[in-house]
C-alpha cells in the first residue's frame, strides 16, 4: 500500500495533500485495485475526494463487484459526493454485478437526498436488476415513502413487475405499510394484477393479516373472489392466520364461502385443520 493510499484509508486529508504536492500518483492502486479516491468515497470525505479529482484522479473505475464510485457514494447516501461525481460525467446508469444502478442502491430512507439528485440528473427510473426489480420495488421494501412519491411523480412505472411478477403493491401488502399502499392506490396502481403464482395484492394482504390494506384494495375494486394457482381466494388465506376481522369483512362483502381450492377445501376446512 502506497503512503497516499494509506492516508486516504485513514481519512487523513492533510497527509494526502502533502503527498500529492510532493508528486504522489493519485491513480496508483493497491492489491485490491482500489485507488485513493475509492477510500475517500468510502470514508465520505468530500474534501479529499475533491482534492484527488482536481489532481487527475480517475473516476470511471469499477471494483471487484463491478461497482462504480457513483454506486458507492449513492449507497452510503452522501449526496455531496454524488453531486461531485455527477459534475464529472460518470456513467449514471452503470450496472454492478447484480445489475443494480446507483438508484437501486440509494433506496434506504437515509439515502433520499442522493436518490433525488440521481433522479434530477436523469437516471433511468425503471431499470431492472438481476431480480427484475426496479428502484420502486426497493423503495417500498425499505418503507421509503418519500422516495416512492418522488419516483412516481417523475414517471416511474407504478405497475412494474419483478422476476416473480410482483408489483410494488404486492410488496406493500406484505410489509403492512398502509400509508404507502394508500398512495400507490391513489396514483392508479392496478389492484388486480396477478403475480407468477396468480396471487393478487389482496391475497398478500390477507395472508399477512394486513386488514386495513385489504379493505383499501377492495374499496378500490379488488376482485374479492380471485383465485391463486391453488384456487385459493383471500378468504382461504385468512383461515391460515385466523384473522377474524378481515374474514368477516370479506364475507360481508361477497366472498364466496363455498369456494374450494385444488384440494377441495373451503376456508372452514382450512380453519379446522390448521
Q: Pairing-aware structural class of the strands and helices?
A: mainly alpha
CATH topology of one domain: Serine Threonine Protein Phosphatase 5, Tetratricopeptide repeat
Reading off the top of the CATH hierarchy, the class of one domain is best stated as Mainly Alpha
Residue runs with pLDDT of under 50 for 5 or more positions: none
Please outline the helices and strands.
Layout: H1 3-9, H2 13-21, H3 36-43, H4 46-54, H5 69-75, H6 79-86, H7 112-120, H8 135-141, H9 145-153, H10 168-175, H11 178-186, H12 201-208, H13 211-219, H14 234-241, H15 244-252, H16 267-273
Helix pairs in contact: 1-2, 1-3, 2-4, 3-4, 5-6, 6-7, 7-9, 8-9, 8-10, 10-11, 10-12, 11-13, 12-13, 12-14, 14-15, 14-16
Name some characteristics of this structure.
274 residues, mainly alpha, Serine Threonine Protein Phosphatase 5, Tetratricopeptide repeat, elongated, Ankyrin_rpt, Ankyrin_rpt-contain_sf, repeat, Ankyrin repeat protein, putative
Write a short abstract of this structure.
By secondary structure, the chain is mainly α.
Description:
This protein has helices at residues 3-9, 13-21, 36-43, 46-54, 69-75, 79-86, 112-120, 135-141, 145-153, 168-175, 178-186, 201-208, 211-219, 234-241, 244-252, 267-273. It contains 16 helices and no strands. The chain is 48% helix and 0% strand. It is an all-alpha fold. The mean pLDDT is 95. The protein has a domain at 164-274: Alpha Horseshoe (Serine Threonine Protein Phosphatase 5, Tetratricopeptide repeat), CATH 1.25.40. Keywords: ANK repeat, Repeat. Pfam families: Ank (PF00023), Ank_2 (PF12796), Ank_4 (PF13637). ANK repeats lie at residues 1-31, 32-64, 65-97, 98-130, 131-163, 164-196, 197-229, 230-262.
